[in-house]
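Support request from a user on the community tier.

User writes: "When I paste my structure tokens into the form, the page sometimes reloads and wipes my input. The last time it worked, I copied everything first. Here is what I submitted, just in case something in the input itself triggers the reload:"
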């Protein structure tokens, strides 16, 4: 039996990062993967959607030439197949990148479905049914998640899709009904609306992106209206039926009926905990089925760790990667924990959304006295130069200690700007400290500087009457 210091089940952004960190620390490590390295993030999530977002953003710019002072003569044609090919090539290149990183670090990759046989053994079944066992002195479970579905709306991969099938469409649908207005629903709404689909978003909770700050949801809702993306809050789809062979008739909980060529179900994700041998080893699971871990990423079984989506916390690639590093360092004798207080979250709608830390409602409910600084993009020179003036940056601080508690953004490039706010929260900055930082002009980051100054009524580019 091949023996490793650390054996990792799953090569997503949790597992592959953990493997590289283990190799950096000089131990013998292997990864078991049943599909392709990079997991959902690289193959079916973050990266392919961002490749499509890049295509549609270029398209949106090209079609607003009038505003920017140019004109394209003749018809502009969308080659959806070429966009998809480009997206596939971007993914392929990154997959190759990870496998060559593995080679450079001497990390062994076993293709096949892995299952815990005991707390130190993984049984691997390859695509031909061949079986072998490997030994891991320590084991890290990083099996991730898959799209969830809802009763009455069975995903068939043809007309009713999960995000996986939506990323493999051959043609642009004339119309698309998207169930769930969270991160995935909004990103696909943005992509297919830009490609000309008639998009409808349906959300169970009272607002779009309900996990974001309420004010951000309000601005996004206005942006949906501007783009004529229909949005129904407090609604779900109860059942669907096929209509004249080519479209789907969806019955909403509010008695509304919507017909669409394709339906996308984006209502969250389910943990990949089946058939991985959790019961065989006695690994405890939480109420939703997620693997339970302590703050060192260790399960109830000593030496077996779990990270990423499968542990159910913040289901984000970058969180999984940090958890992977922490798990490896602890497996090798360290005593690390993950700081979840400053995790950025990004949604690539147009305009983009990014946030970190507490939302206004959360801190108010906790009874904290707060100050809120705001700065609208339309007051920023750079936003006008870019021709993208929608959006806002909002900074929340504790009014007694002046410490930054949360930052929420909607607008151009905010998925990049957010990291300054992550550093501010993680480092315990006060609004006063942060306000002394000099920001380059002209940049979109100046909107953040102004929102920080606005905490103390000192934003330079806001009229006096708006100051507190
Ligand atoms: P999500 O949890 O972000 O959003 C799902 C939405 O569906 C929620 O707003 C929920 O209220 C709604 N919903 C649930 N059941 C419903 C029903 N029956 N009818 C109508 N609406 C319903 O999950 P999503 O968008 O599927 O994404 C999955 C995971 O991937 C999330 O954890 C998300 O944070 C992550 N992700 C992150 C991205 C990013 O950071 N850019 C991009 C895409 C996904």
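"...and here is what came back when it finally went through:"
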């Amino acid at each position: 039996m091949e023996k490793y210091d650390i054996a990792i089940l799953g090569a997503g952004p949790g597992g592959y990062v953990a493997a590289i960190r283990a190799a950096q620390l000089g131990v013998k490590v292997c990864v078991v993967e049943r599909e392709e390295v990079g997991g959902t993030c690289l193959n079916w999530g973050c990266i392919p959607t961002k490749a499509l977002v890049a295509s549609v953003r270029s398209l949106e710019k090209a079609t607003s030439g009038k505003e920017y002072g140019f004109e394209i003569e003749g018809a502009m044609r969308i080659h959806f197949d070429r966009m998809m090919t480009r997206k596939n090539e971007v993914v392929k290149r990154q997959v190759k990148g990870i496998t060559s990183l593995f080679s450079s670090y001497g990390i062994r990759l076993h293709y096949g479905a892995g299952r815990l046989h005991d707390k130190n053994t993984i049984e691997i079944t390859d695509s031909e049914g061949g079986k072998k066992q490997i030994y891991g002195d320590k084991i890290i479970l990083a099996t991730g998640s898959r799209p969830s579905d809802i009763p009455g709306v069975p995903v068939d991969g043809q007309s009713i899709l999960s995000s996986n099938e939506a990323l493999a469409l051959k043609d642009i649908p004339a119309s698309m009904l998207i169930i769930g207005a969270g991160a995935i629903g909004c990103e696909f709404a943005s992509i297919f609306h830009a490609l000309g689909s008639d998009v409808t978003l349906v959300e169970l909770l009272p607002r779009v992106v309900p996990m974001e700050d309420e004010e951000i949801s309000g601005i996004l809702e206005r942006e949906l209206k501007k783009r004529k993306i229909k949005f129904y809050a407090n609604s779900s789809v109860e059942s669907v039926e096929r209509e004249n062979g080519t479209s789907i008739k969806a019955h909403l909980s509010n008695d509304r009926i919507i017909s669409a060529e394709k339906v996308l179900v984006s209502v969250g994700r389910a943990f990949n905990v089946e058939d991985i041998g959790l019961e065989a080893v006695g690994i405890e699971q939480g109420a939703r089925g997620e693997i339970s871990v302590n703050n060192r990423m260790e399960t109830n079984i000593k030496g077996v760790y779990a990270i990423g989506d499968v542990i159910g916390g913040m289901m984000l690639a970058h969180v999984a990667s940090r958890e992977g590093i922490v798990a490896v360092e602890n497996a090798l004798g360290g005593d690390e924990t993950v700081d979840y207080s400053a995790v950025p979250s990004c949604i690539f709608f147009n305009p983009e959304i990014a946030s970190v830390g507490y939302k206004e409602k959360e801190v108010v409910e906790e009874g904290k006295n707060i100050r809120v600084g705001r700065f609208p993009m339309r007051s920023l020179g750079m936003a006008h130069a870019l021709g993208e003036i929608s959006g806002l940056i909002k900074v929340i601080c504790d009014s007694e200690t002046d410490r930054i508690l949360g930052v929420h953004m909607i607008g151009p490039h905010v998925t990049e700007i957010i990291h300054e706010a992550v550093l501010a929260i993680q480092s315990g900055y006060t609004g006063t400290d942060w306000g002394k930082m000099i920001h380059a002009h002209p940049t979109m980051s100046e909107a953040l500087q102004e929102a920080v100054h606005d905490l103390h009524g000192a934003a330079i580019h806001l009229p006096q009457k708006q100051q507190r």
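Agent notes: The reload is a front-end session timeout and is unrelated to the input. Residues 342-466 form a domain with the Enolase-like; domain 1 fold (CATH 3.30.390.30). The chain has 15 helices and 22 strands. Escalated to web team.
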